[in-house]
Each structure stands twice: as C-alpha cells, then as structure tokens.
Design a protein that fits this description.
With about 375 residues, the chain is an all-alpha fold. It is about 70% helix and about 0% strand. The protein has a domain at about 255-365.
Amino acid sequence: MSSRQPKTSSARLSLAALIFVLVSFSVVAPFLFLGIPSGHDFEFHMNSWMEVHQQWQRGISYPRWADLAHSGYGEARFLFYPPASWMLGAFLGLFLPWNLVPAAYVWVVLTLSAFSMFWLARYWLEWNDAVFAGVLYAVNPYYLVIVYWRSAFAELLAGALLPLLLLWILRLEQQRWRAVIPLGLVVGAVWLTNAPSAVMANYSLGLLVVVLAVRQKSARPLLLGTTAAAIGITVAAFYVFPAAYEQKWVNISQVLSPGVQPADNFLFTILSDGDHNRFNRLVSLVAVGEMSWLALAIWFSGKRAQSSKLWEPLTAWGGTAVLLMFSFTSLAWNHLPQLKFVQLPWRWLLCLNVSLALLVVIAWQRW
C-alpha cells in the first residue's frame, strides 16, 4: 500500500457521491417523522442562523452584533463565534423553511465529511475501500451523538475538515512546500469554523509533523508545519484577531465555568449535576466503544501495514486522542497553551474518528 495520485472515473465518482448522499440522508431521515432533536446547543445555533438571515435582508453582509439575544439587549456573538457554521445555516435559510434547515445542514455536513474522508482514503486505498471509509466516517458514533444529543453544528462542520488536515500533512513528505499552502488553508478553515476544534487541529498538526520528522530524521516537517500553521492563522485573521483583541470587554472565563471545564468532563466524571452525569456516561460509553475498535484496528492493521506511511501517524494521532480523554492528563490540560479552551476532553473523539475510519478499513480490507 503506497501513496499515489489516484484516478477515479466520473462514473465511479458519481456512484460514490450517490452513496454518500443517501447514507447522510439516512441519518437525518428521522427528523422528517419525529421532529428536530433539540440538543444542548440547538437554540444557540438556530437563533444565530435566523438572526444572520434577518441581518442579511437588511443589507448587513457580515453581522457582528446579535440584536435579538438576551430579550433584545443583544450580544457580540458574531464577533467571537467563528462565521462558517452560522453563515451556512443562514444560507440554507434563504431557500428552505426553517423547520427543514437543521436537517439540511446536517445532511450537507455529513456528505462533506464522507467526501473529505474519501479524498484522503482514495490517495492511499482502492476505490471500494475509500468509499467504505467515507461512509464509516459520516456515520461514526460520535457524529450521531453530536447530531442527536449535542446539536454542536459548528463542531460537526469542523469534523468535515479533519481528514483534509491529515491528507495535506501526509503530503508534506512528498510535495513539501507545494503542500504547505493547501495545509495552511485547511487550518484557516478550521479556525473559521470552531475555535475548540482549531485548538485540536493545531495540536494535531504539531504532533503529526513530529511523527514525520522522526520518521525522516529531518527537521524539515517541523518547518513546513509551522509555516502552514502561520498561514492558517493569517487566513483567519479577520476573525481571530478582533476576537482576541475584544476579549477584554467580555468575561472570557465563562467559557471555563463549572460544568464546561476540562476537569468536569473527563470520561466517567461524576458531579452533583444529574443531567451532566447522564450525558457524560453516554459519551464515555461511546468513547470506550470507539477506543476498543481503535485498539483492535491498530493491532490488525499493524500486522498488515506497519511498513506503510499511514500506520504510524494514524496510531500516534488516535492514541494521543485516547489519552487526552482521561483525567491523568489533567497536567497537560492545565499547562499546555490554550488546550483548556477545548473545554471537553471527549471532543478529541472528533480527531480519533479520522484514525479509526482509516485503520478499520486497512485492518479488514478483505472483509
């Protein structure tokens, strides 16, 4: 199994697209019969989409202030929250009734996730394996938790970018500086989608270029990765710099208030809040299930593909994501720059699923 520039016929590409569209639709089909699941962040996102839609109608192309928040007092929501998700939701609201927009949003994002994983996998695997990886990634258990329990629509959209992050990191080995700009654009796109995911993406970039540097016995991947990270923050500067500068006007510590800080959200953490404990138990069980499959996939894929260029970075990335979900890594959460702003350690399932989807396919290709 070696990297190559794959050639896929238009007929096969159309078939893959049809599969991804149908599989993604199967996830949201219950919306049409049972109604829209109102998860933890549903009202925040839905109200943001409707607010942006109204401001667009008034000629405000890039809203900064949410007029309708807090009973008409408003808030600087759009200054601090990355624009990609609320722009996509508002855009869908231009064409669809609002009771269909959440389903359409999820449908679009899951389809994009499948395509991005397919693009990554197709560079290394055969067509049918790449399609299976795309399907598996689009319906992974943590995605279903996001859709049906959390309604974390921005985080879901960031998940569609992570396979591309890995793709261009791996391409650094062969394409070197030619891969730096695309990688930087992906990093910038994550910054414009979800801030906690951007922190995870940058740490993932750092980890993976270290893996490449060790494998190549060269510092070049470190230089390339640092350049890509700088390009990413530059691409997103119109959002990141004003948000960072204006923090002095808000109580930014509220994003780490009790219940949403890392110490309260390690796997199987129990607090005095019953609702928190029930959800934490749910996501912890999902995490343990995925970790079990990851361990099996690492073992069986390692027997087949330790010499490949995929196994080492996938194992390092997935393994690091696993470790960071447990409380014994609290020292890292407390001291590594900005890591605490990921808030919820089980958010690393977003990264783990990229490794999991590929390793499962590699491990059991014949099946």
